[in-house]
Amino acid sequence: MATGDSVDRPCTLGRMRSSLPWLLAAALYVALLLPLLLTPISRLHAHPRAYLREFHDTPIRVLVKDVAVNIVIFVPLGWLLTQAMTRTPLSATWAIGVAVGITAVLSLSVETVQYFIATRYSSILDVMANTAGAALGAVTVRRRRRTP
To answer: pTM for this structure?
Structure first.
């Protein structure tokens, strides 16, 4: 293969089954995460259109904390999904891309739902931070596999 990253791995039933525990763990993590992300929090942002004022008069330390929390909570999901994808015939690069793509779609979906919850607000910054967290978790899998 041209990239040196791809490995010709045949698709076998056993290989696909080995990804099932990782997919179940990822699904469980999402099931535990969704109530946290979708529960209305009245004391947090009571204004129904708070997302329009997201960066206005917000201290930088609050924004940094919000981004850091979003990154941290999505690292495990990126790690779990990449563990599952590396057990399929996908190359390591494609496995990371699929895992990060799934997480980006999930994050965008959550933020879309938050738009309709009056005491929550949706933010593109959250989508980017969540996706970055998943990418960090995904790359961790790849690095661990490379080191002896």
So the answer is: 0.78
Structural domain count of the chain = 1
Tell me the CA end-to-end span of the chain in Å, nearest whole number: 23
Dihedral sign of CA atoms 27, 28, 30, 35 in order: positive
Q: What is the pLDDT of residues 100-132, one digit of tens each?
A: 999 999 999 999 998 888 777 788 899 999 999
Q: Is the C-alpha dihedral spanning 56, 60, 61, 66 positive or negative?
A: positive
Residue 1 domain-assigned (yes or no): no
Whether residue 140 lies inside any domain: the answer is yes
* 5 within some domain: no
pLDDT tens for each residue of 32-61: 999 988 887 665 554 555 555 566 666 788
Give the residue carrying structure tokens 């690095």. 143
Rounded Cα distance, 81 and 125, in Å: 22
The whole domain housing 78 covers 20-37+53-146
Are 95 and 26 in contact by the 8 Å Cβ rule? The answer is no
Residue 59 lies in a domain: yes
